[in-house]
Specification:
The chain is mainly beta. It has six helices and 39 strands.
Length: 670
């Protein structure tokens, strides 16, 4: 904490030497379909712009997300991400659950409740918007929050970008991108590839992504947008280790036991092909009306050889989103509807040393998720912003080949939201919000329960959140935000693991999530030649079970596994007029428990990474960036992803020690 305060004092001192031309950007955020500047949006929303995304171009997205309070992106093995927004990762052995993700306004999350964030190419993005907490009033399912991913655009003309990064463990990442912009057209076409042998035994990974995005604006009233993504990935999962195994050999994959083969023997991993296509139409109807409509399709084929099984999964999704907006003086009314429909097959067989064996079970599952919402926004005397909204939601599962039971209604039909923000001055505001949300069991959770116990039903989580916050733009160079929140999650879903490594899920009675989030950002010029950007963020958490009895043990008052009490993120970006730059990020995570019974916990640790290089123009139309970087600069031993409640105490997925990378990035403009 002393170091954090020192950092803030240093930033304040540096403010006196600022060149007033170098200022912090003001982002307009979509939020709850509000489309306002962040300073007058009554929610804790983080907007990550193009410049920040490009800080670690060609690298993984962990520093993008983990720089913000209340946001944690975990990497259990290369290519496997797990995202938590103000919540635990209890439900996610891998992947993203309990969070809604959109790509260019199109749902990336399917009706099964799963989002394949690891398949997206972050090099193509121009803005990432992160909303935390229950968001059911306009976005339907998901108590964790919402993430909006939007591709970048270009000004008039043609632009070609290409980059390559080499690193330890035979890492090779490269990308190429073409963009064109005019008054009527915006076109983006990008391809990227990544491969690595990995730090641990049995942790090879490779993947590729093709992204196409375009817009056509024939006149001022109409705009047509097209989005297309094809992605594939193939990565090995080394598996969790015990503490003793990790201390003996951090690079080892999960060994065999007297009853189970090793991760390597079973060829554990993920092989996946994914396709997403969407079409949007924005219409300025006139008389204060605007109407946006989207149609989308996606396809996912996944193979998952695991220690105890070999799963083949096929998912086909289609859907729509429609939003009608009307502005009347100080009022803005929004009426919308979203529907997502997914048809899936889960074919689970025995795993005979990496070869599919006898079928264990087969399930056809149809899922339907519908949200219809209404929202009103009122501006009082240009200083007070009042928003009230409500949605009606349904989540439906139909099982064709087996009776999967869902207790009661798997959705929470009505989810309201109310917020009020008062602008104290043009750069300072205070707000309060009440939100409600729900998160139904995913298809994977239901099929896991069917395999474990055909009579074990699941109910949807119900979330209620209260938040009080202050936002301040002290000058054009320094801004801060403080938020306090309290969330009650009833029927919270918790992942359990059987003795043979299988999984099933239970509804707890209730969990309580309390937190304080504090963020500070600074941007300015020191002297004549040095530009400085810095951030200092922290969050303080207290997440506990309020009502949960497991195996006859009352866990009331126990802390949730996977949630550290304190997280701190610090970062500095320095750019010299000569073109030399330095980016550095540091994070500290306090200890956290690894089991529901709080029997095991981690040690506190620091993460660190840096990149130094040169960028500049070689000619009027050609720019070059060369860089060298280091991950785990402090050479600490830690894990960026854990297996909670693991049988045999195999919690640990060790992350690499200090490792190096370097590369180059070209940009050609016509």
């Amino acid at each position: 904490m002393k170091r954090l305060l020192f950092f803030l004092l240093l930033s304040t001192y540096a403010q006196a030497q600022l060149d007033t031309l170098h200022t912090l950007p003001e982002f307009t955020v979509k939020g709850y379909e509000s489309k306002k500047k962040s300073i007058i949006t009554a929610a804790s929303i983080h907007a990550i712009g193009t410049a920040e995304i490009q800080r670690y171009a060609l690298s993984d997205p962990l520093p993008l997300f983990n720089a913000y309070p209340g946001v944690r992106l975990e990497e259990r093995s290369p290519g496997s991400y797990r995202l938590a927004l103000r919540g635990s990762s209890l439900r996610s052995p891998y992947g993203v659950r309990n969070v809604k993700i959109y790509f260019n306004g199109i749902p990336l999350t399917d009706a099964n409740g799963t989002s394949y964030l690891n398949l997206m190419d972050f090099n193509t993005l121009g803005q990432i918007e992160i909303m935390k907490g229950p968001t059911g009033s306009t976005f339907g399912a998901g108590n964790g929050g919402v993430v909006q991913l939007n591709t970048s655009s270009t000004t008039h003309g043609h632009e070609i970008k290409a980059g390559v990064q080499l690193g330890d463990y035979n890492t090779l990442n490269y990308s190429a991108q073409y963009q064109y912009g005019s008054d009527q057209y915006q076109i983006t076409a990008a391809y990227s590839s990544r491969s690595s042998d990995g730090y641990r035994d049995h942790s090879n990974s490779k993947g590729q992504n093709l992204t196409l995005a375009g817009s056509y604006r024939p006149n001022k009233k109409h705009q047509l947008n097209l989005s297309f993504v094809y992605a594939s990935t193939d990565y090995q999962t080394p598996g969790g280790l015990t503490l003793a195994q990790m201390q003996d050999n951090r690079k080892a994959s999960r060994p065999a036991t007297p009853t189970l083969p090793s991760s390597k023997q079973q060829q554990a991993g993920i092989i996946q092909d994914f396709l997403l296509a969407g079409l949007q139409h924005h219409w300025d109807v006139g008389s204060g009306f605007t109407w946006s409509n989207s149609l989308f399709l996606s396809s996912n084929d996944l193979q998952n050889p695991f220690i105890t099984s070999y799963e083949f999964r096929e998912e086909r999704t289609g859907g729509y989103r429609s939003v009608l907006e009307k502005k009347i003086k100080d009022w803005t009314w929004t009426l919308g509807s979203e529907g997502i429909f997914t048809s899936s097959t889960f074919d689970v067989k025995q795993n005979n040393l990496g070869t599919p064996g006898v079928q264990q079970y087969f399930t056809d599952l149809d899922a339907r998720q519908l949200t219809h919402f209404l929202q009103g926004q009122y501006v009082l005397l240009e200083k007070t912003f009042i928003t009230a909204g409500i949605s009606y939601n349904t989540q439906y599962y139909h099982n064709i080949t087996a009776p999967l039971d869902v207790e009661g209604r798997p959705g929470t039909p009505w989810t309201p939201r109310f917020s009020i923000l008062h602008a104290l001055t043009p750069g300072k505001s205070i707000y309060y919000s009440f939100t409600q949300g729900y998160s139904p069991p995913t298809a994977q959770e239901m099929t896991a329960n069917y395999e474990y116990n055909k009579n074990l039903g699941l109910a949807a989580e119900k979330g209620i959140g209260h938040e009080l916050g202050i936002k301040a733009r002290w000058t054009r160079h320094l801004q801060s935000e403080l938020s306090l929140y309290h969330q009650n999650i009833k029927d919270a879903l918790v992942r359990m693991v059987t003795e043979d490594g299988g999984e099933y899920f239970l509804n707890t009675g209730e969990i309580i999530q309390r937190g304080i989030e504090w963020s500070n950002r600074f941007n300015g010029k020191l002297g004549k030649n040095l530009f400085l950007e810095a951030y200092a963020n922290a969050n303080f958490n207290k997440y506990t079970f309020a009502d949960f009895v497991n195996e006859g043990v009352d866990l009331k008052g126990n802390k949730l596994p996977g949630i550290p009490d304190t997280e701190i993120a610090l970062g500095i970006r320095m750019n010299h007029r000569s073109g030399i730059f330095l980016n550095s990020d540091f994070g500290r995570q306090s200890s956290m428990f690894l089991t529901n019974k709080n029997e095991a916990k981690t040690e506190p640790f620091w993460t660190s990474r840096a990149r130094i290089g040169w960028q500049g123009k070689i000619s009027p139309s050609l720019s070059l960036q060369v860089f060298g970087g280091v991950d785990n600069l402090l050479n600490k031993e830690y894990a960026l992803g854990y297996d909670f409640n693991a049988v045999g105490n195999r919690f640990y997925n060790p992350s690499p020690t200090r490792n190096w990378n370097g590369g180059a990035y070209l940009k050609f403009r016509i």
